Amino acid sequence: MITSTPKSYVVGITGASGAVYGVRLTETLLSMGHTVHLVVSTAGWRVFKEELGFAVTDREGFLNDTFKGHPGSLHYHPVADIGASIASGSFRVEGMIIMPCSMGTLSAVANGASDNLMSRAADVMLKEGRPLVLVPRETPLHAIHLENMLKLARLGVRIIPAMPAFYHGPQSMDDLINFMVGKVLDNLNIEHHLFRRWGE
């Protein structure tokens, strides 16, 4: 069933290259009226600066300014806050997306190492049987990376590598970013119009 009613989702942004993916995903969910519980890893904040030029001193203020003007609700959780609401299975959300997902975070999730809020929230998705989507961004991949992805895929985790397609005739970087965000939304059954589908 396609989702149009506002829901709550956890979004994780790690230190993998491609922070813009997580920013666009968060913007899109908020623009649809959804609630986003956002977790950014320490390395993720570094990538914000290196890739997007965001020199952040006040993290919560920065996020509120970046994502203001949308009908949805944003809740930021520091990655060290292991007691946050999203660390408990009794707190209801529809699912979690880590976009982009570093190989370190992917490994932590695959091996149940709930040593921070990002990996703990992902572990909650697994134990509660809720949708978990990981968007790894790394190349080349070695055997440990692939084995960890296979382990998670066998547990029902959706692995959507950051591999944008070209059949929809992208004309800009935004088109490529939107394609990847759209593929994530497709896997969560969230209606969107971010790219032209094959046959349209």
Structure characterization notes:
The protein is of the alpha/beta class. The protein has a single domain (23-138, 156-172, 179-187), classed as 3-Layer(aba) Sandwich (Rossmann fold). Helix content is 40%, strand content 15%. It is built from 7 helices and 6 strands. It has helices at 19-31, 42-52, 59-66, 103-110, 117-128, 143-154, 173-187, and strands spanning 8-13, 35-40, 73-76, 95-101, 132-136, 158-159. The protein has a 6-stranded parallel beta sheet, with helices on both faces. Helix 4 crosses helix 6. It is globular and about 45 Å long. The two termini are 21 Å apart. It comes from Paenibacillus agri. This is Flavin prenyltransferase UbiX. Belongs to the UbiX/PAD1 family. FMN binds at residues 15-17, 41, 102-105, 137.
Short description:
This protein has 200 residues and is α/β, with parallel strands linked by helices. Helix content is 40%, strand content 15%. The chain has a single domain, classed as Rossmann fold.
Look up the CATH topology: Rossmann fold
Strand percentage, roughly?
15-25%
What CATH architecture would you give?
A: 3-Layer(aba) Sandwich
N to C succession of SSEs: EHEHHEEHHEHEH
- What structural category arises from helix and sheet content? alpha/beta
Low-pLDDT residue spans: none
What is the assigned CATH homologous superfamily? Flavin prenyltransferase-like
The helical percent reads 25-40%
| Count of beta strands | 6
Name of the top-level CATH class: Alpha Beta
Distance between the amino and carboxyl termini: 21 Å
Radius of gyration: 16 Å
The total count of helices amounts to 7
Mean pLDDT: 94
Domains counted in the coordinates: how many? 1
Enzyme class: transferase
Binding site for dimethylallyl phosphate: 167, 183
Organism: Paenibacillus agri
InterPro entries: Flavin_trans-like (IPR036551), Flavoprotein (IPR003382), UbiX-like (IPR004507)
